[in-house]
Design a protein that fits this description.
heterodimer; A: 274 residues; mainly alpha; Arc Repressor Mutant, subunit A; 3 domains; 70% helix; disordered N terminus; B: 171 residues; 2 domains; three-stranded antiparallel β-sheet
Chain lengths: 274, 171
């Protein structure tokens, strides 16, 4: 129908001067524009033309309207030939579908928790930061670990948003953390960002609060045995007697710790926990 | 009076490695640097005077005397002798004392942590019906429970270790 009107209108249009050079190329478009304008004005008496301008501009430039499915939707609704009442019901049902989809998206994607849960999240992070401080960890460090425990994986930007620390502070801590197996750093496909995740799960971390692992004892034994060897090359030096005695005492102590840990692993309270 | 033995350079180099290792040792982390530094020198040197500590650490006399007081009150070191010029020698009998002490600290830390986790767990349980459908609730609830469940384990672990350490010290 529109096309027919345009044929009829052809020849009536006088183009603005600036368009002269491209007049042949744009001719058809401008004829369509003229037709739309006439139609709009005849159907909406007294309506400001700016309204149409804005709508058309959005329609032409916003990529949202390039979606084929959207045009299909419009066609299908038209074909249904619904009454006003039905149209209202349909729109309500469509709105519910929008909202449900959005809620689902939030649940699966967002790193921002809802309402009161955020208050508890903050409180939990504070507790973990305090526990970390006792072990000599900085607040930035503790917060990052805490948020990763809750969210599993996060980007640097998300960590900044959640913790409130500066980009520099976060990147410095992440660099430190990334060098240990405690944290995994993976590139996001097609982006220049990385996603960070803990290399261990919640239960592992929780069980390490005691920070008394057999690996740390074994590491200490190995270290001090190395030092004994070095000391033995300096038997005639001042200080040898005291230091080697002290180091030997420490080795004995760490060996004893390993034994104690073995004993604990076999004890009933550990077995009950598992 | 006990004479404080001077260490030769080769021995000092080895001592420096040990110092660095112990400074980053998990049980020693978290206390004030001045405190840990002096504690570690007692581990390596056994007997020390304020003057010798000043030479080793570069800390002020005030800081050193303050940390020594703390170490004495915690029974990590003891006064052994006073020279005729009034200089006191302090002694850490064996290096194990320092570790055992750190364990009792750990016990306190875990208890404090346990108290806070139990409190947040109670509050969440009270509000559970109102907030359990909110995004993120599951994660918070899970972590709080994992932490709460780990506490009896950690406390029992530290308690057992302390008992064993007491036996070791007595031997």
């Amino acid at each position: 129908m529109l096309y027919v009107r345009i044929i009829n209108l052809r020849g009536k249009i006088s183009y603005p001067l600036s368009m002269k050079t491209n007049s042949e190329k744009f001719k058809h478009i401008l004829e369509l524009t003229e037709a739309l304008t006439q139609e709009f004005l005849s159907q909406n008496k007294g309506r400001n033309i700016n309204y149409l301008k804005e709508k058309i501009k959005d329609f032409l430039t916003n990529p949202l309207w390039n979606n084929d499915r959207l045009h299909q939707l419009k066609r299908n609704i038209k074909e249904l030939d619904v009454s006003d009442d039905e149209a209202n019901t349909l729109w309500k049902a469509m709105e519910e579908t929008f909202d449900l989809g959005y809620a689902h998206h939030l649940k699966s994607k967002s790193h921002i928790y809802e309402g009161k849960v955020r208050v508890y999240e903050k409180r939990l992070i504070e507790i973990l930061v305090d526990a970390g401080k006792v072990k000599g960890q900085s607040a930035v460090f503790g917060s990052i670990i805490g948020y990763l425990l809750l969210h599993e994986s996060l980007t640097q930007a998300q960590l900044k948003e959640l913790t409130g620390f500066s980009k520099g502070a976060i990147s410095q801590s992440l660099k430190l953390l990334s060098s240990s197996p405690a944290i995994k750093k993976e590139p996001i496909e097609g982006e220049r960002e990385y996603v960070y995740a803990l290399g261990v799960n919640m239960a592992d971390i929780a069980n390490n609060i005691g920070s008394y692992k057999s690996e740390s004892n074994e590491l200490a034994i190995k270290f001090f045995q190395g030092k004994i060897q070095e000391l033995n090359e300096n038997k005639d030096k001042n200080g040898y007697a005291i230091l080697s005695k002290r180091v030997t005492e420490m080795i004995n102590f760490f060996e004893y710790n390993v034994e104690v840990l073995e004993k604990i692993k076999e004890s009933s309270f550990i077995k009950e926990l598992k | 009076m006990t004479t404080i033995e001077e260490f030769d350079d080769d021995i000092i180099a080895i001592e420096k490695d040990i110092f660095k290792f112990l400074m980053s040792y998990s049980l020693f982390i978290g206390q004030k640097t001045t405190f840990t530094t002096i504690k570690i020198y007692f581990i390596t040197r056994k007997s020390l005077t304020q003057e010798k500590l000043q030479e080793l650490t570069g800390f002020s006399r005030g800081t050193i005397s303050q940390e020594l007081k703390k170490l004495i009150s915690m029974a990590l070191i003891e006064k052994t002798s006073v020279s005729n010029t009034g200089e006191i020698t302090y002694l850490m009998k064996n290096p194990i004392i320092a570790y055992v002490h750190s364990f009792s600290n750990l016990m306190n830390d875990i208890s404090k942590f346990a108290y806070k986790i139990d409190a947040i767990k109670d509050d969440i349980e009270k509000e559970k019906d109102l907030i359990e459908d909110l995004h993120g609730f599951d994660k918070i609830y899970q972590l709080v429970n994992v932490l709460a469940n780990s506490i009896p384990f950690s406390l029992e672990l530290v308690k057992t270790i302390q008992k064993e350490l007491a036996l070791y010290q007595d031997e």
